[in-house]
Each structure stands twice: as C-alpha cells, then as structure tokens.
C-alpha cells in the first residue's frame, strides 16, 4: 500500500499555540492595544493580574511590565463573589487613567478562536505560497453553529426532526428578485434572508425561527433545541510541545525545490505571525525536510573535501608533483558541474527535472571516489611519457607526446567507465517504490562518472600540456620513494606467485570461501540507517478508544517526553485531519521529536532513551523510528515497520490466534524491538436495523430511515452562517446527552410520505 500524498510530500510540520506569560500564567489580549494581560491563578478569590507590552514575542525577557492603577472584576448573574480565573468573563483594568475592558474566555472558547485564526488567516496565507499543494490542519476546535435538539421538546410540541431541518434550510437563504428598471438605469433586486453577518445577532435570530405553526402560536426553534456556538465533531487532535495547539502539515507540489519552498514558507509564517497578537506563537521548525537535505549536502561537501585531500596526498606521494595533483583535482568540480547541467537537460527533455535530493546526493557521494580515476590514469601516463621523452635522444614536441599518451589509455578508460556504468543499469529495471527510490541514485552516479570520463578526455590532456609539457620536474628520471617501494614489493609478490602457483591459487580459493561465508552472514537492510535529526514515535491504543481517552493517555506520554533532555521540541498528531487522505483512528498518535543537534550522544542512544521512557506506560504499544526511515518502511512493505509479517484469511479469530503465535515465536529473536500485532479486534456498536416489512406498510424507504438516524446521531450540516466575512457550518442533531440514550432514539418520530408520523421503533 502506497502512503498517501499527505505524508509522502510533507516537507514542513508547523505548530501554532498560545504561549504562557513570563510568570507562567495564561495571556489574554487587552483589546486592540497590543498589550497582554497575564492571569496568574492564586488561592485567594482574586487572581493576580499583570500587564505586559511585548517587545519580542519569542523573548519573554524583553517584555516590559506595565503598572496598573486598578483592576475591577465584573460579576456574572447575581453572584456577589468575585469570579475565579475559570469563571471570570471580563475585567476592567485602569492604566494611566484609562480603563480597558479585557475578556477572559474559557479554554473551549480559546481553542475555537485559535482554530478559526488558523483556518481563516494562516492557512490562506500558506496556500498562496508558490509550490504548496495542500496545508492540512489538525488540532483546536472548528467553530460551528449547532442546533442541539431536545427529543422531549419535540414530543411536547409535536415537532419532527425533519421539520426542524427544513425550517433551518428555509430560513437561511438569499434569493434574487431580478432587476428593477427605471428610465435608462437598472438596479438588481436582492432578497436577503441569510443569517448574519453580525455574530452577536446570529444566535438570537436562530432561536426565533418558526419551526411549526398552529392555531395559537408558532413553535420557535429555541423551544425545541439549544442553539450554541460549539466545536465541530472531530476525529483528530494535536499539540505542540505538550501545549494545546494547531498542527500544520504542509505538502509540496511535485518537482518543487524543497529548500526554496521551505524558505518561502518560513517567510509566510513569519508574516502571518506578525499580524497576530503576541500571545500566539508559530513554530515552523517542528519538522523540516530541508534539514535532512542540508545535512546531506554538508556530507557531500565533506566527502568532496576528504576526496580532494586524499587525492592530493596520494598523487603527491606517488608522483611528487603539485601540478599533476592540481590537474587531477579539477576532475571533481568539473564533473559535478557537468552533472548539474545534464540534470537540467534531462528536465528540458522529459519535463521532470532531477533535483538535488537525498538519492541523487547519495549517487554523487558513491561516485565521489571514482571521479578522479580516469584523470589519474591519464595524467600518470602523460607524466611518465613526458619524462621518457625528455631523456630520449630524439625528443618530440610535448603536444604530440600528450596526445599519444592520452590515446594509449583512452580505450582502457572508456571501457572501464562503461563497465562500471553497466553495473548500475539493473537499478533501472526495478519496479514499484524500489525503482522510484533508486533510479535517481543510479542516474546521478552514471551521469557523474560519464562526466568525469568526458573531463579526462578533453580538459585533462589540455591542462597536462600547459602545466607539464615544459615543466622541469619531468626531467627527473627516478620515481618517487613511495612508488619505488611499492614497485619493489610488487615485484617480490609477483615473483613469489609465479614460483608457487598452486599455493597462490589455494590461498586465493580459501580467501574467496572465507569472504563468501562473511558475506552470507552480513546484516541486510533496504537502506543504511540515516541520522535525520528527528525521531518519530507512534503510540497505539486499543481499538475503540475515544479521542478524549487518547488525549488523556498522551498527556502521560507528554510528561515523559518533557523529561528527555535531548528533545528540543515535539509535535503530536492524533487521528486524522480534515481533508487528509492519511486516515488513522483516534487511538493512534504520531509524535515527531526534534532533537538537539549538538548532543554528544548517538542516534541509537537517543532512540533507546525514548523507548525506555515509554516502556512502563500501561495500555499502549509504541514504535520508535526516524520519520524518513518510517516513510520508506511504509513504502516498501505497506506497514509501519522495517519488517512486516502478513497473515491472510477470512476468519478474524483464527487470524488473531495465528498472529499471537507468530509474535510468541519471534519475540525472543535478538534484535527484535517494538514488536506489535495490528489491533484487529471487535468493538461494541449501536446498530439500527430497518424492518423491511414494516417499511412497506408505512411507505418508507430504507434511505429515509438512514438519513433520519444520521441526522439525529451524527448530525447534518444544513447550511452555512455568515459571521463577518467568514462562513461557519449550521448543524442540527440531538443534544449530546441524548445521543447515547437508546430509549430516546426509539421514541423519535419520522415523517411519512403520505402524511403523519411514526416512531422509529415501529419501523
């Protein structure tokens, strides 16, 4: 199973959250003044209030404290007690003789506000960035106008659920009256029937909607339902470093430069953050694929330096000539430049330009040691022939000697390069994900090797002529001391091998056998382990676990992670985000842990510490891996682990027994870690089954019952409500306290096609 685009193309995971004040209290904006009020809970009835002028939202030490002349807490209802932190809706704060009204909304309202800010301010700004395919949001609560039906009131006023639904649809719509023509002008006629856009008026207007008329007076919506601004039902949640927040997962378009797009996203997030109050912080560095790419580029650069140094040392020791060293070194940068140009040419021809990604960098790193091979052979032969020409009785022109010397080794260089390239050709025969993964590596390797061949056949002879053709060093007759020593050793070894051929062949055969045994026992893996600078922790709870219970368990996980010193920050994604095809149950959570890049400990030590921190949390199954390694495992095997064992059959109970047997058999194998069986278990259900015979008597179809129950239990979005310049869903369903009451569900009445109603339990 191929992973969806939402995880295949994700390049940035960002978090938006409300930070705490300098003293650890919650922050609230003081209107539009730019000041922030920090509310610190205390045991006394009155909470401590501090006012700050934020200078730099990311540096709390730079905030300036503002002295207050007085704080007046406003009371609610008829209570005479001063309100506590959780109960206080607002207070009047006097600063420099001027009074400011500060509201202290509940945590539920703050989650709604943060998600609304993310949906309507931050996400549109991100989607404008060139190269962004989608921005998935997880966490917070999406605002929704909810009509929560009271079944008892429906029975009391003889109103059905369908009548409520239809009344809402009919009471929130604009229509056109055509045009009014007067003289030579015309004016469009608009019939405005939509609710809003004043937020304070929407709830009042909803409560006044007539649902059903009778002889005495109309039944209003407010009499049969509770109308509130609530949170949309969700199947996922998120947090940022343990604090409630909103998680953005940014997916890029195909063939877009990851590093450039990441820079543009950072700019967009920074601009969006500047438009928000200082209590809201955006962290775009929770996960960035660019960091892995930069690390790869650094490693390739390091390989370039190491290769260049080794070439300098080896050539100087063998030839004792700085000029030959310089000529050979030019093969490395020139080959890389030609490789880059060929990448661009491939893009023009195929329309799919090769990029500098992890696999192409890997191909270049593999080829790095071979880029100088052809140049070394060419330069060494030219250097040798020039020395011989200097000491000959009839020396010829150096240009001719360079040409003849290059011609001597040309066939060997070309054939050797072609053989090496042929070794990599089977990579292009791979199909599926393996082919997609390794094809760029093969292309990068072959193109760079062929580029080095081109350099050795063109640039290297020219440089050799200009730098070595008239050099005095070619007059020296003797080889360098190292070369003379190696020649002496080689001469002795060859003479010994020729003198004792059977012994030589026996030792060679024995060495081949020993090497074969070692190869057969070497560890095997799809790819070598990476150091990605981040860890992915997957936490799985039993199927059927609710989102609230999952959040509670993840609170314990958060406390453990905060104690791991090498973790700089982390983000949690539980369940599924809206619009995301990467569907996960609410019992599954995914953590991305950003590690301290300056830690002296190895990657394995950090992973083991995270694994040990999760070991004694009851009721969870964990798997610890790195994000890209996790993705590759998902691509190759279809499961979220490097090794997956799949058991097929149509009997779920037998499959579970077999799976437990397999787990017991492999649990003791050395090296097996994070062993888990996919939780395929039955969970309790509330089932509503329509009786075909009774449906026939009442003239109902099965879909009539299905839609009725769906509206009552899950809810139905019947319209959208204007709230300023924004729109929010208008949803109708049973009140939360009635959704799990089976008796209430049975008594609900369904409209019949021919008129009248019937109880749900009768059909």
Q: Can you put this structure into words, describing what you see?
A:
Helix content is 45%, strand content 21%. The strands form seven sheets. Strands 1, 9, 16, 17, 18, 19, 20, 21 and 22 form a nine-stranded antiparallel beta sheet that branches. Helix 2 (107-127) packs across helix 7 and helix 13 packs antiparallel against helix 14. It is α+β, with helices and mostly antiparallel strands. The protein is built from 23 helices and 26 strands. It folds into four domains: 1-142 and 245-290, no CATH class; 144-230 and 689-763, Multidrug efflux transporter AcrB TolC docking domain, DN and DC subdomains (2-Layer Sandwich); 321-479, Multidrug efflux transporter AcrB transmembrane fold; 534-641, 2-Layer Sandwich (Alpha-Beta Plaits), CATH 3.30.70. Residues 1-6 and 77-88 have low confidence and may be disordered. It is elongated.
């Amino acid at each position: 199973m191929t992973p969806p685009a939402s995880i295949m193309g994700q390049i940035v995971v960002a978090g938006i959250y409300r930070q705490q004040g300098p003293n650890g209290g919650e922050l609230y904006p003081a209107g539009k003044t730019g000041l922030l009020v920090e509310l610190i809970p205390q045991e006394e009835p009155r909470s401590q209030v501090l006012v700050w002028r934020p200078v730099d939202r990311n540096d709390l030490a730079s905030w300036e404290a503002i002295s207050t002349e007085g704080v007046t807490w406003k009371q609610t209802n008829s209570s005479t007690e001063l309100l506590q932190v959780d109960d206080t809706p607002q207070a009047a704060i006097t600063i420099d003789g001027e009074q400011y009204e500060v509201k202290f909304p509940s945590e539920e309202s703050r989650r709604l506000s943060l998600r609304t800010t993310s949906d309507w301010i931050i996400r549109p700004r991100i989607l404008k960035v060139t190269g962004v395919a989608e921005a998935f949001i997880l966490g917070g609560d999406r605002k929704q106008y909810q009509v929560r039906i009271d079944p008892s009131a429906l029975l009391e006023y003889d109103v059905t659920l369908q009548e409520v639904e239809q009344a809402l649809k009919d009471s929130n719509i604009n229509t056109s009256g055509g045009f009014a023509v007067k003289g030579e002008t015309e004016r469009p006629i608009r019939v405005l029937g939509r609710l809003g856009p004043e937020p304070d008026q929407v709830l009042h207007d909803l409560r006044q909607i007539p649902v059903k008329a009778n002889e005495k007076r109309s039944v209003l919506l407010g009499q049969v339902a509770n109308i509130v601004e609530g949170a949309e039902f969700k199947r996922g949640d998120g947090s940022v470093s343990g604090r409630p927040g909103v998680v953005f997962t940014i997916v890029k378009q195909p063939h877009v430069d990851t590093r450039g797009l990441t820079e543009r996203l950072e700019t967009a997030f920074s601009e969006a953050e500047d438009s928000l109050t200082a209590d809201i912080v955006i962290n775009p560095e929770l996960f960035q694929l660019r960091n892995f790419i930069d690390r790869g580029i650094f490693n390739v650069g390091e390989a370039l330096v190491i290769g260049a140094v080794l070439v300098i040392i080896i050539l100087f020791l063998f030839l004792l000539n700085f000029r030959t060293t310089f000529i050979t070194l030019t093969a490395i940068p020139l080959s890389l430049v030609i490789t880059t140009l060929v990448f661009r040419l491939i893009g023009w021809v195929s329309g799919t330009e090769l990029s500098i990604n992890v696999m192409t960098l890997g191909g270049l790193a593999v080829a790095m040691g071979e880029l100088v091979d052809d140049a070394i052979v060419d330069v060494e032969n030219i250097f040798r022939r020039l020395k011989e020409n200097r000491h000959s009785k009839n020396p010829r022109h150096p240009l001719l000697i360079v040409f003849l010397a290059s011609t001597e080794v040309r066939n060997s260089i070309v054939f050797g390069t072609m053989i090496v390239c042929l070794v990599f050709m089977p990579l292009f025969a791979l199909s599926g994900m393996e082919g997609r993964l390794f094809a760029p590596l093969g292309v990068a390797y072959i193109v760079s090797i062929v580029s080095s061949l081109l350099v050795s056949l063109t640039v290297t002879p020219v440089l050799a002529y200009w730098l070595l053709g008239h050099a005095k060093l070619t007059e020296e007759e003797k080889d360098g001391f190292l070369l003379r020593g190696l020649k002496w050793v080689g001469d002795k070894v060859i003479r010994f091998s020729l003198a004792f051929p059977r012994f030589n062949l026996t030792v060679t055969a024995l060495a081949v056998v020993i090497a074969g045994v070692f190869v057969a026992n070497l560890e095997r893996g799809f790819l070598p382990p990476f150091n990605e600078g981040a860890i992915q922790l997957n936490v799985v709870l039993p199927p059927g676990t609710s989102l609230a219970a999952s959040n509670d368990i993840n609170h314990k996980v958060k406390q453990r992670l905060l104690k791991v010193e090498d973790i700089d920050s982390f983000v949690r994604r539980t369940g599924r985000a809206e619009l995301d095809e990467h569907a996960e149950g609410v019992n599954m959570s995914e953590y991305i842990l950003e590690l301290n890049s300056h830690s002296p400990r190895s990657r394995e030590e950090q992973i083991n510490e995270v694994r040990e921190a999760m070991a004694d949390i009851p009721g969870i199954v964990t798997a610890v891996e790195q994000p890209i390694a996790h993705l590759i495992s998902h691509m190759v095997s279809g499961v979220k682990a490097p090794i997956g064992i799949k058991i097929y059959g149509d009997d779920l109970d037998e499959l579970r027994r077999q799976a437990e047997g397999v787990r017991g058999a492999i649990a003791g194998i050395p090296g097996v870690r994070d062993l888990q069986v996919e939780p395929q278990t039955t969970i309790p259900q509330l089932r509503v089954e329509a009786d075909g015979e009774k449906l026939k008597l009442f003239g109902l179809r099965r879909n009539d019952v299905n839609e009725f129950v769906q509206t009552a239990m899950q809810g139905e979005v019947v319209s959208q409500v204007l709230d300023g310049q924004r729109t929010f869903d208008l949803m109708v369903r049973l009140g939360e306290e009635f959704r799990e009451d089976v008796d209430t569900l049975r008594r609900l009445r369904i409209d019949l096609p021919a008129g009248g109603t019937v109880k749900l339990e009768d059909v």
